[in-house]
Amino acid sequence: MKRLLSLLGILQLLAATVAVYKQWIPNTNFETASNWDKGRVPCARDVVHFEKDKVVSVFVGSPHALTDMYLPLNGEFLLAAGAAFTAFDGSWDPGCDTGGTVRFADAEQRSWFDPTLWRDVLPSGELRPGGPIFSVHEERVPCRHDDVIFQPETSFRVNTDSAQPVIHLRSISVMGQELNTPSSWAGYLGGPSAPLQFHGNGTLQVTGNGCPDKSGCACGNALDGPRICAALLRTSGRQCPEPACQSPLQPLGHCCGVCGATINLEFTPDFDLQKYQDKLVQELLSQPKYAGVQMAMSKVHRAQTFLGAVSRGAAPLIQIVLIDDRAGAQAGTTAEQLAADIMQDIAQHGEALGISSGKMEVATGSAASGQVGSPRASRITAGTVMGLLFSLLFLGGILFLYRRGKLRLPALRPQHPWERMEDPEPPAPASDKGFDNPVFSVEPPDVDLGEVASKDLQVFYLNPLYNASETET
């Protein structure tokens, strides 16, 4: 029976992963005790104080009697049916024997990019049941193709400061109304409530578009990764928990090091991320021996390097992160075993699944991190290394023969820049012989240049058909 309930939970989880819904947790409701500095809702003998220079949007769900209330200069009260404020008439109020000043807490610093302020929910808004799937920190904040839900009958105020000017989303639900088109969202932004609920330099933009690629889409929060990690560490004590392994792994999009295993997959156009995730959950993660293992899978962009130095841009990869609940020297060992099973399955069925290669990296409490590649990737790496070795041997052989005198290389005299700048030699003077005629060859008469210079210049040519001696008298 327990196994059946677990299987039903997994199937419900798989059905919900097609579309990702993230719900904003905090609110600015009047009836929420954590919104007041005294940690309780104001009672009849209290004086309610809102800072006059703070912008607020407050939902009031029930009637309240108060001694006095100071309101802000800019704000709104959203009153539910039957909600109202009345002046205290001095009658007895149980639980409010002594009154005082109760101040509304500051909600200005609640950041959109704080992963602790979001939770994954079902389309109905109910909390998604716990299971073997988790998200890296960057993906716990709404991604560009996610649906965002603000709880019905709640007010809120969110700081949208961002490293990117526009924050894209598929849809936003406010007060029970889903806004999933650019025009409907633009209409809401033009209303009176939006400026009181959203503030900051980042602009929310609804596209209505889900991820169009079956191999998955990158989250799109990489630029705000430092902001996400800063908010997370500010909430958790400004430092990551100390992992039990010596050299913890650092998955892309995750703020803290982890013990366990990561697998990076290179894929073909036939790869389907959702189907592959479902396959791993059903065939491997559902096994009793992997009960304490959690998996995160998503498309990421990793910077490529050549020989560890020259960047070649970013390439899309499928990143799988595996962690377990083991402690001490056993931390990460169960995740390592699952990663080995996944790599074995890739070796057998990778081509049919649209996986071209995979690389596994492991960090456990008993060993430092290490890398294991798929057979195809290993062959490619071995071929690259052999090619480099062959090139070095070839160049070394040429150098050896040259130094032994067995090989002569042509001497190339480099042309220096100052030689190229020298003036070219003047062209040879034109000959006064005209041009050579292969039919007629006569030596030109001797002419004294001094006489030519003193006489009129005459132009003549020699006629091979005319003999000058025949015309003399």
3D structure, described in words:
The chain has 473 residues and is an alpha/beta fold. It contains nine helices and 21 strands. The strands form seven sheets. It has a five-stranded mixed β-sheet. A hairpin with a 2-residue loop joins strand 20 (355-364) and strand 21. The chain is elongated and about 110 Å long.
What's the arrangement of secondary structure elements?
Blueprint: H1 2-16, E1 21-24, E2 47-49, E3 55-60, E4 64-66, E5 68-70, E6 74-79, E7 85-87, E8 101-103, E9 118-121, E10 147-150, E11 158-159, E12 166-169, E13 171-174, E14 177-179, H2 182-189, H3 194-197, E15 198-199, E16 203-206, H4 225-236, E17 260-267, H5 273-285, E18 294-306, E19 310-323, H6 333-353, E20 355-364, E21 367-373, H7 375-403, H8 417-420, H9 449-454
Parallel strand pairs: 1-10, 2-5, 2-8, 3-6, 4-7, 10-13, 11-15, 12-16
Antiparallel strand pairs: 1-9, 13-14, 17-19, 17-20, 18-19, 20-21
